[in-house]
UniProtKB/TrEMBL annotation, chain A:
It comes from Marinomonas fungiae. GO terms for cellular component: cytosol. Its main location: cytoplasm. It holds the Pfam family CheW. This is Chemotaxis protein CheW. Keywords: Cytoplasm. PROSITE patterns: CHEW. InterPro entries: CheW, CheW-like_dom_sf, CheW-lke_dom. Residues 14-154 form the CheW-like domain. One of its GO terms (biological process) is chemotaxis.
Automatic annotation (TrEMBL), chain B:
InterPro entries: Bact_Chemotaxis_CheA (IPR051315), CheA-like_dim (IPR004105), CheA-like_homodim_sf (IPR037006), CheW-like_dom_sf (IPR036061), CheW-lke_dom (IPR002545), HATPase_C_sf (IPR036890), HATPase_dom (IPR003594), His_kinase_dom (IPR005467). Involved in the transmission of sensory signals from the chemoreceptors to the flagellar motors. CheA is autophosphorylated; it can transfer its phosphate group to either CheB or CheY. Residues 1-104 form the HPt domain. SUPFAM superfamilies: ATPase domain of HSP90 chaperone/DNA topoisomerase II/histidine kinase, CheW-like, Histidine-containing phosphotransfer domain, HPT domain, Homodimeric domain of signal transducing histidine kinase. GO terms for biological process: chemotaxis. Pfam families: CheW, H-kinase_dim, HATPase_c, Hpt. This is Chemotaxis protein CheA. The lineage of its organism: Bacteria, Pseudomonadati, Pseudomonadota, Gammaproteobacteria, Oceanospirillales. GO terms for molecular function: ATP binding; phosphorelay sensor kinase activity. Residues 171-204 have a biased composition (Acidic residues).
Length: 160, 727
């Protein structure tokens, strides 16, 4: 749905993004997709699933998959402790949790502040990126989280 | 009309119920000893649909029900004797109405041709029947019995002419009207399920009509008038009911003057055209469910502001004065119930969490705590049972369509078949009701088509000419067992084997009877010497089994040559909760559905054999291939072929396809679990049917024993017995 997403961008001049940390890099995703943020808890492993799918948890009665983006993109060390954070996302009416190293802030960005992403130098394929934005003196990578989560590459959802 | 659209759904629901009522009632109608109450019920249902459809602008239904109502009204006024043929026509009309309703509901194009032709057909039939049955009718015209309604009718032309007292009515006509018409066989059937079957007459009756419709329409108009007449009242009434409020009059009508009752009279006056709305009836019907009403109607009517008592049929009025029973049921959207069921599932989980915590309490409060927890547990269980029971429906919701099916089919095939239904009150989860209907239909067709022989053959083999198909349902433990038993020729072992070979279906190796019978579920299998349009294309039986298995059920076949065949379907009571055995493998809990489990054993070393490098188990006088849960689902890399299996537990399981053993670390215990979908937020996983939440809040996977068979790979002599190859 990248195209749809971009459509939204042009309509809404300012949007809020949740920034999170993977390894040494700071990423951001549209806060409207975030359902909640919670600590990491043990998952029930799913047989024959790729390693980045940690398993499923019980989110108040819903059986929800947990994905570790650090494993998927080879960023940082996949460690799990009391500070490990899971961002629960609501994407296309499904709930998916992503494991990140930390959640830092909420930032407001205007469209013109988002610059196109470079073709290289980022762990994510550029089709899952909206672009880059400056945060004080560092760069934030804006992820198109809907496109990423629903991508066939991740294979979380049944192929259509 | 926009503001009406919100009521459309209610109308659809009601109309659907009315149509079903009509069908059931028509099927029950005894041609020989007619029960006016039944006719009245059918009439009311038709009337309600007519009124409702007019209000909401579903004109296709209005016209047709109108004509139908005409015929019914004559019948209940005893001007017309309903013959089997006429009932067939009426049933066909009900079918058409159902189609129309479906079209409206789904915003589909309405097929006016069909409507017109069924109208024409009804009218022709009516005209013919009237002509045949003679003059009696005319005479009666005058009578105007006590009922207001009657009078109302009187006005209208020839139409109905009136009502004869019921009692007398039938007397007039001696002969059945064998009208020439033809109905499709199909429809004919339903009516008399049991009655007919016994008598044999039915069959014949039906036989007359092969094809039906397409006749010329008699004049609709006459009929319509009557109907409309009725309409008045309703509209009036309507005001009370919600829906009613909106009614609008459409029909043309005839002002009916008079009427003995003033009230009515007024009623008429107001709405000249109005008509169709027959809400009262609707109300009544709904309130009670169907059929019951005599008094109800009365009562309800009275309540209506517009005092239209008149409507009550004569019969009823006279019959009893019993008080109206208040509505004992309400209509609830299924989503609400589903939500409730889910919430209760949560409650059950929370309760078991509390129990876990409670067990750890050591202090002085421990005793009180335990007492309270026990109380909570009991209440929770009761709530759960109560909520689950809301979703339960009697299986008659499914069974009720079969008398007609059997009647249609047997007529079409020239067989004499009686369908006996037992245990129709057995309750079954609503979701199952919807899903079990197709497989059952197929199996019954199969019994009628392939199972029961023709009368000549039966006679020749010394059986009674009339075959019997016995459809029964019962609850047995945590399962619903549905049996379809015919007293036909039984399955032909040789033919099945030959057919399987011809089709290239692999034969199981110990070729037991059971194994042979299971062959008919193989894709593409059909033993019918020739394909009929009823069955025999061989597309069905494998689908039947698949459908049943997808519901967590299984099918078994028992058959004896010359004596008959029985299909036994076992289904879980509900789709939401499952009795399972919790097992542990690789530190994870898995739930094995109890229905699949034969036995759990701790194998002794000598029970383990190795074939082609794979371990198999010798138990219960047979070899059991093994599926290593720790490896297949628990993520262990090592194969069990490298372990001492006597330290493990093997759970022997069976599915309709195969029997094998699950290797697990330990048994944890038996437990009821609430089934949660894994697909809701994730995707399907091989070998896993779903997930559940355990008392500690963790997630456990529920095994799909059927799909675990894929993890058995190497051959063990037969297609269904295979062993997982060593790593």
């Amino acid at each position: 749905m990248p195209s749809e997403q971009q459509g939204n961008v042009s309509i809404m001049p300012t949007r809020e993004f949740l920034t999170f940390v993977l390894g040494d890099e700071t990423y951001a995703l549209d806060i409207m997709t975030v359902k909640e943020i919670r600590g990491y808890e043990a998952t029930t492993k799913i047989a024959n699933a790729p390693s980045f799918i940690k398993g499923v948890i019980n989110l108040r009665g819903d059986i929800v998959p947990i994905i570790d983006l650090r494993i998927k993109f080879g960023i940082g060390e996949p460690t799990y402790n009391e500070w490990t954070i899971v961002i629960m996302l609501n994407i296309h009416d499904r709930i998916v949790g992503i494991v990140v190293d930390g959640v830092s802030d909420v930032m407001n960005l205007e469209d013109e502040e988002i610059r196109p992403a470079p073709e290289f130098g980022v762990a994510f394929d550029s089709q899952y990126l909206h672009g880059l934005a400056a945060l004080e003196d560092s760069m934030v990578i804006i992820v198109d989280i809907e496109a990423l989560i629903s991508s066939d590459e991740l294979g979380i959802f049944e192929p259509a | 009309m926009d503001n009406l659209s919100q009521f459309n759904e209610a109308f659809f629901d009601e109309a659907q119920e009315h149509l079903e009522t009509m069908e059931t009632m028509l099927l029950d109608y005894d041609v020989v000893e007619p029960d006016i109450e039944v006719l009245n019920s059918v009439f009311r249902a038709a009337h309600s649909i007519k009124g409702g459809s007019a209000i909401f602008g579903f004109n296709a239904m209005t016209g047709l029900t109108h004509v139908m109502e005409n015929m019914l009204d004559r019948a209940r006024n005893e001007e017309l004797e309903l013959t089997n043929e006429l009932i067939t026509v009426l049933l066909e009309t009900v079918d058409v109405l159902k189609d129309i309703l479906h079209s409206y509901r789904n915003d589909e194009e309405i097929d006016w041709d069909i409507i017109e032709s069924s109208k024409a057909r009804l009218e022709t039939e009516l005209a013919q029947a009237m002509a045949q049955q003679g003059s009696a009718t005319d005479a009666s015209a005058a009578n105007t019995t006590a009922n207001d309604e009657d009078e109302g009718f009187g006005f209208f032309e020839e139409s109905e002419t009136t009502e004869v007292l019921e009692d007398e009515g039938f007397g007039f006509f001696d002969d059945e009207a064998g009208s020439p018409s033809n109905s499709d066989d199909e429809q004919g059937f339903g009516f008399f399920d049991e009655d007919m079957a016994e008598s044999g007459e039915e069959d014949q009756g039906f036989g007359f009509f092969d094809d039906a419709p397409g006749t010329v329409a008699a004049d609709e108009k006459t009929t319509s008038e009557e109907i409309e007449g009725f309409g008045f009242f309703e509209s009036v009434e309507i005001s009370d009911s919600d829906e009613a409020a909106q009614s609008q009059p459409q029909a043309p009508d005839i002002g009916v003057p008079d009427v003995k009752r003033t009230q009515e009279g007024e009623g008429y006056g107001f709405f000249d055209e109005a008509m169709k709305a027959r809400q009262e009836q609707d109300k009544i019907d709904d309130a009670k469910g169907y059929g019951i009403y005599p008094k109800d109607e009365k009562a309800s009517t009275e309540e209506l502001s517009t005092a239209t008592k008149s409507r009550a049929k004569p019969v009823k009025a006279s019959t009893n004065e019993t008080k109206n029973v208040e509505a004992t049921s309400i209509r609830v959207e299924t989503v609400k119930i589903d939500k409730l069921v889910n919430l209760v599932g949560e409650l059950v989980i929370t309760q078991s969490m509390l129990n876990l915590i409670g067990n750890e309490v050591q202090e002085s409060v421990a005793e009180k705590m335990m007492g309270a927890l026990a109380e909570l547990e009991r209440n929770t269980r009761e709530i759960q049972e109560a909520v689950m029971s809301v979703r339960m429906l009697p299986i008659s919701f499914v069974f009720n369509r079969f008398p007609r099916l059997v009647r249609d089919l047997s007529t079409k095939m020239g067989k004499q078949i009686e369908l006996v239904i037992e245990g129709a009150n057995t309750e079954i989860d609503k979701n199952l009701v919807e899903k079990i209907s197709d497989p059952l239909t197929h199996l019954i067709r199969n019994s009628v088509d392939h199972g029961i022989e023709t009368a000549e053959v039966r006679k020749a083999s010394g059986k009674v000419e009339k075959g019997t198909v016995r459809l029964s349902a019962m609850q047995k433990g945590g399962e619903i067992v549905i049996s379809i038993l015919d007293d036909g020729a039984g399955l032909n072992r040789e033919r099945i084997v030959a057919k399987a070979e011809e089709k290239g279906i692999e034969l199981p190796s110990p070729l037991t009877d059971d194994a042979v019978w299971q062959l008919i579920f193989a894709p593409g299998f059909s033993t019918a010497a020739e394909v009929t349009d009823i069955s025999g294309r061989g597309v069905g039986m494998d689908v039947v089994r698949r459908n049943i298995e997808s519901l967590g059920g299984r099918v078994e076949i028992n058959s004896s040559p010359g004596i008959g065949t029985e299909f036994v379907i076992s289904l879980p009571l509900t789709l939401a909760i499952l009795d399972g055995m919790c097992v542990e493998a690789e530190d994870q809990i898995f739930v094995v559905p109890l229905v699949n489990i034969i036995e759990s054993i701790q194998p002794m070393a000598e029970q383990i054999r190795v074939i082609k490098g794979s371990k198999i188990l010798w138990a219960r006088d047979e070899y059991w291939p093994l599926v290593d849960i720790g490896r297949v689902l628990g993520g262990r890399d090592d194969s069990i072929d490298n372990f001492d299996l006597s330290e493990y537990i093997i759970v022997l399981v069976e599915t309709s396809k195969s029997r094998f053993g699950l290797v697990v670390d330990t048994l944890v215990g038996q437990q009821q679990v609430v089934i949660k979908s894994l697909e809701r937020h994730y995707r399907r996983v091989d070998g896993v049917a779903g997930a559940t939440i355990m008392g500690d809040g963790g997630v456990a996977l529920i095994l799909d024993v059927d799909s675990l068979t894929q993890f058995i790979s190497s051959d063990l002599g037969g297609p269904s017995y295979a062993v997982r190859a060593a790593g």
